[in-house]
Design a protein that fits this description.
The structure holds two protein chains of two kinds. Helices cover 46% and strands 12% of the residues of chain A. Chain A is an alpha+beta fold. Chain A folds into two domains: 57 residues, no CATH class; 79 residues, Glutaredoxin. In chain A, strand 3 and strand 4 form a beta hairpin. Chain B folds into two domains: 107 residues, Ubiquitin-like (UB roll), CATH 3.10.20; 101 residues, no CATH class. In chain B, helix 2 runs antiparallel to helix 3. The longest helix of chain B is centred in the middle third of the chain and has 17 residues. Chain B is globular, with a radius of gyration of 21 Å. Chain B is an alpha+beta fold. In chain B, the strands form three sheets. Chain B has a five-stranded mixed beta sheet with strand order 2-1-5-3-4, with helices on both faces. In chain B, strand 9 and strand 10 form a beta hairpin. Chain B starts with a strand and ends in a 6-residue tail after the last helix. Classes of the chains: A alpha+beta, B alpha+beta. Chains A and B meet through helix 4 of A and strand 6 of B.
Chain lengths: 155, 236
């Protein structure tokens, strides 16, 4: 994939070409492409004079960074203790069936990515689902389809 | 100068030395897998645990990282140390059931089987980081890295693809304490980390001796002409 080097240069310069801001640069690139393209990692590493392997190490370590293209909307199903007890796994199951993908996967039309998280800090609303930063509390398997409909067709 | 005792013997050491270094110099055997003189300590294998007593307190510490301290008593074979070491060996054995080195070390400590669930996807790798460090600091190419974290963490080249940086020198194979990394030289081709390297032939004895890429790397780094490097070490 071709990456827009001008845009990446802007990101690198924004952090003063300082390699201690590598993670922040990766996050900015990810915001732009919705994932971290290999070419972008390579380009940033080259400009910061750090080995490609070190960049890859950072990129694989943080779960907020993705090396594969992600969907337009990110669905986070909470599986923290409270959500787990109140049926989080069932909600995840329902999403997997409704979107026809597994946890961590992206729908074929590139609209949804399904992920689980380990606590969003809103345990009173368990089981919680967060789509693009918007929270849906006390979800039931029945409300899963309704949530998806708000953002578009599942397939 | 720092004075303390190891297994009852009075020893003296410089201020910044580690217990492991002093103990080995004084002739006490402490098993390790991840320690290397040229690359320092990371405290990853947890085999070098010793007991440190200071007054009424005692602690089990990694001797490869613990700096010597005046007046402490160190025990390398106390019952607590042996218990911890055996547990570590059982855990290592569960991770790498097929590693001969770990089997041997475990047997030395009287362990032949592990009570933990065995892994079958880790190969012989204990994540000691020696290959990654030697590639970066001794060879100077940094082709290897750790990817992921937790149970998925592994040693790899970026994207598990043949690395542009790898020169096929095999330093990672040589330093690996458990024999995890695999390299094959066959018909003038070396295969390592999914990459194939053409091997150079010595013009005098006509034997393959090193990958062309490695010789080119040395030539650029040291300024030695390629013709000189092509001659194998035994013909020089």
């Amino acid at each position: 994939m071709e990456v827009d080097t001008a845009a990446i240069n802007t990101i690198i310069d924004k952090y003063g070409k300082d390699k201690s801001y590598l993670l922040a640069m990766f996050q900015d690139v990810q915001r732009q492409y919705r994932y971290l393209p290999k070419e972008a990692i390579q380009y940033i590493c080259d400009r910061l004079h750090i080995p490609f392997s070190k960049g890859y190490e950072v990129a694989t370590f943080y779960s907020s960074l993705s090396l594969t293209p992600r969907g337009k909307h990110i669905v986070h199903v909470c599986l923290g203790t409270a959500c787990h007890l109140r049926g989080g796994p069932n909600i995840l199951d329902s999403f997997e069936r409704a979107l026809n993908i597994k946890r961590g996967g992206t729908t074929e039309n590139g609209l949804f990515t399904l992920e689980s998280v380990n606590c969003l800090g809103a345990c009173a609303l368990a089981p919680l689902v967060r789509v693009d930063g918007h929270d849906y509390g006390k979800t039931t398997p029945g409300s899963v389809k309704k949530i998806i409909k708000e953002y578009g067709e599942p397939t | 100068m720092v004075e303390f005792t190891i297994n009852g013997k009075n020893v003296r050491a410089e201020k910044d030395e580690t217990i492991l270094n002093v103990a080995r110099r004084e002739g006490f055997d402490i098993p390790t897998l991840c320690y290397n003189d040229t690359l320092g300590s990371d405290g990853r294998c947890r085999l070098c645990m010793v007991e440190v007593r200071k007054g009424n307190r005692k602690r089990i510490v990694t001797s490869c990282l613990y700096p010597v301290e005046s007046g402490v008593e160190v025990f390398t074979e106390s019952p607590d140390v042996l218990l911890v070491r055996k547990t570590v060996l059982e855990l290592l054995l569960a991770r790498c059931p097929n590693s001969e080195t770990i089997q041997y070390l475990a047997k030395e400590h009287g362990i032949t089987k592990t009570r933990y669930m065995k892994d079958n996807d880790k190969g012989k790798c204990i994540l000691c980081n020696l290959c990654v460090k030697t590639c970066e600091f001794n060879v100077g190419v940094a082709a290897l890295c750790m990817s992921g974290k937790g149970p998925l963490k592994k040693v790899t080249t970026p994207y598990s693809e043949p690395s542009h940086d790898c020169i096929g020198c095999g330093a990672c194979v040589a330093i690996c304490p458990t024999g995890h990394i695999y390299m094959e030289d066959k018909d003038g081709v070396r295969t390592i980390w999914n990459k194939r390297f053409e091997l150079a032939r010595c013009p005098q004895c006509n034997r393959y001796h090193a990958p062309v890429e490695q010789l080119e790397f040395i030539a650029t780094k040291s300024g030695t002409p390629m013709e000189q490097l092509l001659i194998c070490p035994s013909c020089k």
